[in-house]
Amino acid sequence: METKRDHSFFEQVYQLVRQIPEGRVTSYGAIARALGNAGSSRMVGWAMRTAHMAKPPVPAHRVVNRIGMLSGKRAFGSSTLMQQLLENEGVEVVDDRVVNFAAVFWAPSTG
Q1: Beta partners for residue 25, in sequence order
Q2: What is the secondary structure of the chain as a DSSP string?
Q3: What DSSP string describes 39-57?
Q4: For residue 105, which phi and psi values (nearest 5 degrees)?
Q5: What's the CA gap between 32 and 108, in Å, rounded?
Q6: CA angle 59-79-77, nearest 5°?
Q7: With 0-12 CB in 10 A as exposed, 13-18 as middle and 19+ as buried, what is 18?
Q8: How do the domains of the chain map onto residue ranges?
Q9: Which of 21, 51, 66, 77 allows an S-S link to 60, with CB 3.0 to 4.6 Å?
Q10: Cα distance between residue 78 and residue 80, in whole Å
Q11: For residue 90, with 0-12 CB atoms within 10 Å meaning exposed, 13-18 middle and 19 or more buried, which class applies?
């Protein structure tokens, strides 16, 4: 069950994820660090699992794990939708991993 504190954290995550430019990706850990909660990358993942309910929309497909793997793809209801969304934005994905991850990585900032 999501607590009030979780809800506030989730909203902070969503606000940051909405800033990720099209064609770029970031990681759960980078978001957690940007929010001052370096140890909360798993909680960022939980936020991404419920992002489809958020308004305005959250581009959760742009958040991957620390090595560029599409570890959250099951949350999209299809094993290929996350990859399709990224590829529609020009991000190349092979074997569930972002190709040239360092080049398309977006470092979030809250400042």
Answers
A1: 105
A2: ---HHHHHHHHHHHHHHTTSPTT-BEEHHHHHHHTT-TT-HHHHHHHHHTGGG-SS---GGGEE-TTSB-TTGGGGTSTTHHHHHHHHTT--EETTEETTHHHHB------
A3: T-HHHHHHHHHTGGG-SS-
A4: -70, 135
A5: 10
A6: 65
A7: middle
A8: 4-104
A9: 51
A10: 5
A11: exposed
Q: Contact at 8 Å (CB) between 64 and 86?
A: no
Cα 24–27–29 angle (5° rounding)? 150
The amino acid at 45: G
Which regions in the chain score pLDDT beneath 50? 1-2
pLDDT in tens, 58-86: 999 999 999 999 999 989 989 999 999 99
Tell me whether residue 88 is exposed, middle or buried, using C-beta atoms within 10 angstroms of its C-beta: 0 to 12, 13 to 18, 19 or more.
exposed
Nearest C-alpha neighbor of 31 from the set 70, 65, 80:
65
Residue keyed to tokens 């996350």: 82
